[in-house]
Every structure is written in C-alpha cells, then in structure tokens.
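Folding Problem: From Residues to Backbone Shape
Fields: amino acid sequence; protein backbone structure tokens
RECORD BEGINS BELOW THIS LINE
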Amino acid sequence: METKSGNRILPYAIVTFIYFIVGFLTTVNEQLQAPLKFAYLNQAGGLKNTLTTLISFFFFLGYLINGTLGSKWVNVAGYKKTLIRGLLFILSGLLMYLCSSWFGYTYPHRELHFTNVVIPYGFIIFLAGSYLMGTSAAVIQVVVNPYVASYDLKGTQPVQRLNITTGINSIGTTSAPFFVTLVMFSGIPIIHIHIQQLLLPLSVFIVCIITVILITSSLNIPDIPNTRTVAGEKLERSIWSFKHFALGVMAIFFYVGTEVSIGANINLHAFELMQAGHPMTFFGKTKLIIGGLNLGIPALLSTLYWGGFLVGRGISSFLTRVSARRQLTVTTILAALCAVLAIATQNLWFLVAIGLLHSSMWSCIYSLSIRGLGKYTSRASGVFVSAVFGGAVFTLLQGGLADIFGTWRWTWSLSVICELLMLSYALFGSRPRAQDLLLPD
C-alpha cells in the first residue's frame, strides 16, 4: 500500500514514538531493581545483588528466545501487524507487573525458602513480567531497525534516521529514572518503599498502552520493499555466511552487555558507596549530600548516563561526513579509558560519561552489519536483536561478581573488555568481503 507524499513522515513518526515507549519502559524495568531489592529481597542473604540483577536477566532473556520470532512475523505478516503484536506483549508484561504488586501486597508471606535465602512469590511473578517486556522490546526492535534504516524519507540517510529514532528512544530512557523516583515512589527513602505503590502507575501505563494499540491499528504503516522475504521464497544462503554480519552480532552482544550493565547497576554501586559514607563529588567541587539512602543520587547518575545517549545521538545525526567505522573506533577507545578511570578512582561520573560515548554505537554497528544484505535484512535484524541478550549475561555476571568481591568496584573490568572487543570489530571485523555485498555498497 502506498503512502501519500504528504504523509511520508507519519509512519516513521509512529514507529519512532513506539520506540520511545520501549526505551522508557526498558529503563523503568532497570530502575526498579534497587527498589525491589529492598521491597522483596531483604532476606536474600548473600545473593541480594545476584537475585536483583535477575530482573534485567529475564528482560533480556526475552531478546534471546524471541528475537527471531519477530523477524518471522515480519516476513509472514508484515511490519504493522508485528508492531501491534509487540505492543500486546508490552500490555501482557505490564499486567504481570500489576499482578506482582498486588500479590506481594496481599500475600506478603508467600515465599520460597532455600537455606538462608527467602524469595517472595511476588518477585517471581515480576520476573515473568520482565521476560514478557523483554520479548515485546525484541519484537518491536526487529520492526524498528530495518524499517527506519530502509524507510524512504527525503533528505535523510540511514544512519541519520537511526540516530534520530534512537535519540527519541533516549528521551524515554533519560526521563525514566526520575519518573520511577518522583512519580512511582514519590521521592521517599528507599528503605520505606512498599510494593503497593506500583499499583496506580502500572494501571495508568496499561491504559496508555491500550490507547496506543488502538491508534496504531487504525493507521497506515506501509511495508518496505526488498527488506523481507515473500511468501514461499527460500533464501539460498545462511545469514551466518556473511562475515561482517556474524562479527557484528558478536559486537552488539558485547555492546549491549556493557551499555545495560552500566545503566542497570550504576545505581546499585551508588547505594553501596552511600552506605559506606563515600563522598560523591560533582565535577570535583559540589558534594552531593548523603543521607537517608534516598533514590535521588542514583537516579541522577542514571538520568545523566541515559541523557548522554540523547545528547550524543543528537550530535551524531549531524556527522554526515564521519563514517560509522571511524565513529565506532573513537568512541570505544574513549569509553575504555573512562571505565579504567572509574575503577581506579571510584568516581562514578566517569561511568556516566560513557553514556555519551555509547550513544552512536548501536547505529554504527547495525549499519555496518547489514550493509549489502538485501532481502536477508529482516532475518538479519531478528538475529541481530537476539544478540541484545548480552545485556542479560553481563548484568547478571556483574551482580554475581559484586557478591563474590563484596564490592561493585572491580566488576567494571567487564566494561573495559567489552569496549576493546568492539574496537576490534571497528578496526577489522566490519569490513565486508566482496561476496557478502548482495547490493551495491
């Protein structure tokens, strides 16, 4: 179905807005880790950090298991129907969150016991909701990435459109930490948080998502030609035979691993420092007041980290003469240096600065990975999105190391490793072989 020239921007705007929702709810899920640690896991013994990071683990498990499901739906049903199915997964995840809050409030003593570890059933229900939310994000991302990269919007380039869309996504991730702090928990000290405080905001979220589903169903979101297989068509090659794509999947695994682990765990490290009475300075001058273990300082760190994505993506959208390979090379080197400085000084502002450097990495790796893939693009997008599971692996691994080391400090070595592996992709792995360019470069 063709879209009138005067409405060319509308489908792009709708897809971008839904991606904003995904970014917002993804970060809400991450920011609920610290509150739920206190609300649900006070009796988890020495596994508090590990169990807390299971929230992010189950979210990104949805990417691993269901990333290719989204690409299958795109090929069979098209982009619009797949987008709506992704929104329905968001709705189901929010309903599970609501059930978790209600169950935890109504039946606070229904628990699983393992030696000295106590896990409330409400927390287990929340993990199921987190998995459904991750599945929704995976399905929607399978639509957004190829759609935005291939959409014919006059006067724009693929990497620019990706940076604009991911920039709008970053508005959601930037606003989410303070939304959790000021709206969902009213800015109260974290030790006084009660699970029933989630009931009202989650109900509002559910109503909003139902509205978005109804509006999206009524709009014209045309398919993009030559980005998916048609009915009955068989692909001659395995998607893994494209070397630059296969290595790009590995690069995105490590990228999302460090991106998410910083965003999800920097607040837990901040709480550790606050409990230890460690002074946290702002640009070396203004000391942030520590007291009451409230959510303000960790929320500020998370907000500025995700805010760096917003600023960086805005800047990157104007870098039309700087190649994706060069952008990725420079940013990974600087990010690795920041991570080393954060470990050496225990100054979390160096981790915050990595947000600015991470901002363009997704667009760079994605655009380098799908070059010349033609009709393999939608299938590649599904596999590519599955690699987002790196966010689960590294977040959980870091939580386990924090319990083993007794501190979050040395766990940031994982970020250094991830940045160096992405640097190797930028320098060597992203160069496609001649036989892997099905479309003109």
